[in-house]
Amino acid sequence: MTDSMNLINAQVTFLEPRLVLVHIPNELFSFFTQPFLRILFDHDHSEDTSKITWTDRHAFLNLSITPVGCSLICSKELVEKHLTPLTEQFDNLLGKTKAKSAGIETSHDEYVAIQVDGQGLDAGQRVLELTGPLAMAGISIFFITTYFSDYILVPVKARHTVVTTLQQRGFVFSAEAEAYVSQLSPILQHNRNLSSPFHERPQTASSSGSDGRPPSSPMPSTPPAKDIPELQIRTFTKLMKNKIEPAVDPNLRLVNCAGNRDHDEASTRQLKEDLIQVLLASNSPRPTTHKTVGLTDDTDFSAKFLSMTLSSEPISILMEERLLTQLGSTLLGTKGEEDVLVPIVLDLRALGWTATGIVGGVAGRLSQGAASFQLEEGDNEPVEISFLSSAKAGNVIVRAKQLGRALRALELGMEEVKGRK
After folding, report:
1. Under CATH, what is the fold of the domain 225-253+340-421?
2. Which PANTHER family does the entry mention (predicted)?
3. Where are the domains of the chain?
4. Which end of the chain has the lower number of beta carbons within 10 A, N or C?
5. Rounded to an integer, what distance in angstroms lies between the CA atom of residue 125 and that of residue 364?
6. Tens digit of pLDDT for each residue in 318-336?
7. Which DSSP string corresponds to 18-50?
8. Is residue 277 packed enough to be buried (19+ CB in 10 Å), middle (13-18) or exposed (0-12)?
C-alpha cells in the first residue's frame, strides 16, 4: 500500500512497558481512590525516582473516569503492587463469582502502547488509516488521542503482526528517529541509516518471548474483514447485536488541555494538589447529574468525565469545562466556546476484551458519513474526531457544534445494518 498524505509525516514508536487495563465500576471508585493516588504520585521511596517530577515517571499511563466506569491503563507491576491486593480482598469478601459480577475486571492480555506523532495530521483520518488495517488483521486495539500525540494499544502477542502491517503501509525503521516512519518522510531525505524494510526493529527483552523471538499473534476465530466497508458493517452489526447505542449527555462539555513542556516545580506541585482534590471529590456516589444540593459549578470539583494521560510528553487532560476553575490555571489549551467538545459514549461492557474493529469501524463510518452530510449541507468544515478508548467504553470526541452531524453519521451506520436484515 502507498502512504497517504496523513501518514507521510507520521512517526510510530513502540513504548517499552507491558500494560494491563483495569475497569472499576463508578460506584466502587471510592474504594480505589487511595491506590490510584499512589500510582499517580508515589515515588516508592526511591532516591532516584524522588528526583523525577511525578508527570515524568510513567512511560505510559491513562486514568479515565467516564459514565461507563473508571479505567486504568498502566504497567502490570503498578497494578500488581497497588490494585491487586485490594481486588483480592474483594474476592475473599464476596467470593470470586460475586466479585466478578460487581464489575471489577483486569485484562488477561498484556498490551504495548504505540505512540504516533506528526505535524498537520487529521486525527479522524489518521485513526482510520492506522487502525483500519490492524482491525482487518484481527487485532484488538485501543486508541487514545491526547493533546500532543496519539496512542494505539495492541496486545503484546500481536506486536509482530503490527510491525508487518506497518511495513505494508510503507513504513521502515529509522535508527535516527528511533521510530517507524514513512518511506516518503522528509526525515529519510537526511538519513539513510535504515534497517531493512522487511525486518522489525531488534527485539528487547520486554517485547520478545522467552526464547528471544517476537511473540506471535494467534489467528482470529473469525476471518478478518477484507476492507473498510466490511469492517464498518461488522462493527455496527456487533453493536446492534449487543444493543449498544451511542449515548450523549448534554451536561458533559469537555476541553482538552496539557501541561507546559517547560513546566516548573511550582506549577507541577499545584496541578498535583488540584488533581488530588478533584479525585477525592469524585469518590462519593454520583447523582444522575453533576448538580448537587448546596454545590455550584464553582464549588463542585467531582468529575463525571476526566481522562489524564502521562507519558514522555507533557501530561494531557481531557476534562469537563466546569473544572477549568480548579485545574485550568496551570494548563495549556484553547478554552473558548468554539473549542468545547462533547463525548459520544459507547458502553462496551457487553463485549469481551478481545473485541476487534470497534475503533476502526466507527472511525470509518464517521469519516464517510460526516463527509456526505458535509456535501449535502454545503458545509466545507470537516468534522474533527478524536477517540478515547477506556477499558470498557469507546468515547468518540467531537466539537459541540458538530455533534449533530457526527450522530447522524453513526445513525446511518445503524440504519445500513438494519437494511441488510
Report:
1. Alpha-Beta Plaits (3.30.70)
2. CASTOR ACT DOMAIN-CONTAINING PROTEIN, CHROMOSOME 1, WHOLE GENOME SHOTGUN SEQUENCE
3. 19-108+254-339, 225-253+340-421
4. C
5. 8
6. 999 999 888 878 888 866 7
7. -EEEEEE-GGGHHHHHHHHHHHHH--TT-HHHH
8. middle
